[in-house]
Structures are given as C-alpha cells and as structure tokens.
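Weekly puzzle thread! Below is a chain. First person to post its structure in token form gets bragging rights.
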Amino acid sequence: MGEKLKIKLSIADRVYPLTIDPSQEEGLRKAAKNIEQLAKKFEQNYAVRDKQDVLAMCALQFASKIEQKGIDNTEDTKEVAERLRALDQLVNSKLSIK
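Winning reply:
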C-alpha cells in the first residue's frame, strides 16, 4: 500500500476533506467539478435555491446515466450474442455440421 493523500473538495459551497489513494485524485476532482457544473446548471435553469434539492437532482442525473449505460450494455450484449448464434448456424450449415 502506498502513501495516502489528503485533499479537500468543494461541493455545493461545502469543503470535504478526504484521505485517498493518489490514483483516485484525478477521478474525484473531475467528479466534484462535474457535480459543481451540473448544480449551477440546475440552479440557473430551474431557479432551485435549496442545495439539498440541487444535489438530489445531480445524484439522480448521474445515477440515471450509469443505469442507462448498464441497460444499453445489456442490450448490446444480447444483440452480439444473437448475431454470433446466427453466424454459427450459418457456418455450420455451410460446413454441413449438425
């Protein structure tokens, strides 16, 4: 195990001190930046002033993207499997393998 890194992230006007592995720093900083940008967008577009509501909307937005990617990947996997089965049947029929 390597040395831990102490960082501070600012999200919704609050500072969060974290102790992390150095390999996590870039991802956490990008995530905090994305949350801040989305929160500002929600505050501007929907006139939401309560930080709790804004953060809940951000959480829902990010969670829905993750869930949708999972759904899309599952659908893609099913489509690939179906195509592979069809190709396998085609090859077997051409080779007269049953």
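Puzzle host: Confirmed. Bonus trivia for everyone else. Residues 40 and 98 are 62 Å apart (CA to CA).
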